[in-house]
Write a structure and sequence with these properties.
By secondary structure, the chain is α+β, with helices and mostly antiparallel strands. The protein folds into two domains: 439 residues, Beta Barrel (Porin), CATH 2.40.160.60; 87 residues. 23% of the residues lie in helices and 45% in strands. It is built from 13 helices and 18 strands. A 14-stranded antiparallel beta barrel has the order 1-2-3-4-5-7-8-11-12-13-14-15-16-18. β7 and β8 form a beta hairpin. The longest helix has 28 residues.
Length: 546
């Protein structure tokens, strides 16, 4: 029976990412949700998207607060043939996803502050676990198939279990920086983002049951009881072996049971008992008739040894199938240096570039309960965030139209993501060389946003975005996968006064289902299919003091 301790490793590998990057949330404002392209922004949300463009704001103070509500489903179909049900669904709920910005602009300088969940930001719940949780439990059934050869009453045909996992992850980003205007066309930005981060994982494996001859039984209890019965049978076998030792000591080891009875060394009843024991072990009568006493004793000893070994294995399996719980928190802080450039060749066009350096992040376990033994308190866990290059082009040459084209490049291949969870669950006890490391090429997203100014105070907008992190198949598993998607968004902007502006938007992501192939020691090849849905509602208020 394979150990179930790998489940703790699954919990450590979760990532809750709600926007484009593998770990980076680029949905940082209500303006973004309604346009899906803000890399050339000259508004207050430029604190995040184009900090070098903040120099275009009027002198004075500018503030903005935003919130988003994000609803996401993760759908997994697993083709592993031993599972009870191949369909799994997880929900990610983010009722409040807050972001905020503040800028003080004076002459050639702008000083800015921003905050928001740079990664994570919600809670993922899997009410019946995931395939990678359940596959090792499903393997218990074929692993116990040999018991039916010992006794028909030990025919194990199925399993059940209560699996649950909930994880929350939030990497808060607090960004500070300064923008300097070189001239009317060119400005630069330098800043840093501080990311205090927390992951909380709570999981349980409870009430594992085995179906034996059509009825469900507590797995630990049934295995323990069965182990005790096998020990009793082993004692009987050893007794049978010992009962013929005096005959062997007196030189009768070469005689068959028939010869011993005929020469009255044993009674018919003793012969019947010895033959009955051999038949119970599966030895055919034809073989019994030609076995000598030494061979009979060897058969009984071998049966006793085998039963003792199986009993010990069942006891070990029973211990592994008891209830397990995990409750741990991981905390740490990272720093992201940020550089930006904004170039405006004329009043109609704006070009922006932003580079966020790789964030080196180490989280440390703070463990309350760890029945699985892989969350030792105080142990560090790597959680780096890839570097990002953002480029934006903005156009507002018409009174009624504003447009932005944005590109984000994610340097995913410079970050290590650890082992593939499914490979870990399948191969760690059989052939660890089969465990692949999660790999990714550099990813990207490209978005186009349009704003239609219906009046000086009211505008509507729409936008579209396509994102592909270009992860390799070795990256994908039910526990952590990333798939390409399109997003459509729209919303409104209402300039309530010259100083007060309301933005509201909604977007929906259309993910492209991905089929991923896996191998397993028991199943040479099978497929998983991964899908997602995501819906985002947002609203924000901006206020300026000129």
């Amino acid at each position: 029976m394979k150990k179930l301790t790998f489940l703790a490793a699954l919990l450590m590998l979760i990532n809750l990412s709600f926007a484009s990057g593998l770990l980076t949330n680029t949905n940082q404002s209500a303006q973004y949700v309604r346009m899906l392209s803000r890399n050339a922004s000259l508004g207050i949300d430029a604190v995040y998207y184009n900090p070098a463009g903040l120099i275009k704001l009027e002198d004075g103070w500018h503030f903005s607060v935003n919130s988003q509500t994000i609803l996401q489903e993760k759908n997994v179909y697993c083709g592993y043939p031993l599972l009870n049900d191949p369909n799994y669904q997880g929900t990610v709920t983010v009722p409040v996803f807050p972001t905020g910005f503040a800028v003080y602009k004076k002459n050639n300088w702008a000083f800015s502050f921003g905050f928001g969940p740079n990664a994570g930001g919600g809670t993922a719940e899997f009410k019946r676990g995931l395939p990678s949780f359940e596959i090792p439990i499903s393997k218990v059934v074929p692993g116990l198939a040999g018991l039916s050869q010992i006794s028909p009453d030990m025919n194990v045909t199925g399993y059940d279990a209560d699996l649950y996992f909930q994880g929350s992850s939030i990497f808060w980003g607090f960004q500070l920086g300064a923008t300097y205007k070189v001239n009317e066309k060119l400005s630069f930005y330098g800043g840093v983002r501080i990311l205090p981060s927390t992951n909380i994982y709570q999981g349980s494996i409870k009430n594992i049951q085995l179906e034996v001859n059509g009825s469900m039984n507590s797995a630990p209890d049934w295995l323990t009881q069965t182990a005790g019965g096998l020990n009793t049978m082993a004692s009987v076998a050893y007794f049978g072996a010992g009962s013929v030792q005096p005959i062997i000591d007196n030189g009768g080891g070469a005689y068959t049971l028939n010869q011993l009875e005929q020469n009255q060394f044993i009674s018919p009843e003793q012969k019947a008992q010895l033959e009955g024991g051999l038949k119970a072990m599966g030895v055919p009568q034809e073989q019994i008739d030609v076995m000598n006493v030494t061979q009979v004793q060897g058969a009984y000893n071998a049966a006793g040894d085998q039963l003792t070994g199986v009993s010990a294995s069942l006891d070990g399996t029973a211990a592994q199938l008891g209830d397990k719980e995990v409750d741990t928190e991981q905390t740490g802080t990272g720093f992201t240096p940020i550089l930006g450039l904004n170039f405006s060749p004329n009043e109609d066009w704006n070009i922006a570039v932003k580079y966020e350096n790789k964030t080196y992040m180490t989280l440390t376990n703070k463990t309350k309960v760890d029945d699985l033994g892989l969350f030792p308190d105080g142990v560090p866990v790597n959680s780096d965030i890839p570097a990002l290059l953002g480029i934006g082009i903005g156009y507002k040459g018409l009174d009624w139209l504003e447009a932005q084209l944005s590109f984000n490049g994610f340097f995913n291949n410079r970050v290590g993501y650890g082992p593939n969870v499914r490979d870990l669950s399948s191969w760690q006890d059989d052939d660890p060389t089969q465990i692949r490391q999660k790999m990714s090429d550099n990813g990207y997203e490209i978005g186009l946003g349009l704003q239609f100014n219906l009046s000086e105070k009211f505008a509507i907008s729409t936008g579209g975005l396509y994102a592909d992190q270009r992860v390799k198949e070795s990256y994908q598993s039910d526990f952590s996968y990333n798939i390409p998607y399109f997003v459509l968004g729209g919303g409104v902007m209402w300039k309530i006064t010259d100083k007060l502006v309301l933005d509201a938007g909604v977007s929906n992501a259309f993910y492209q289902d991905q089929t991923v192939n896996f191998a397993d020691p028991l199943v040479p090849s099978y497929n998983d299919v991964y899908g997602k849905t995501a819906l985002n509602f947002s609203a924000g208020i901006s206020y300026s003091i000129f």
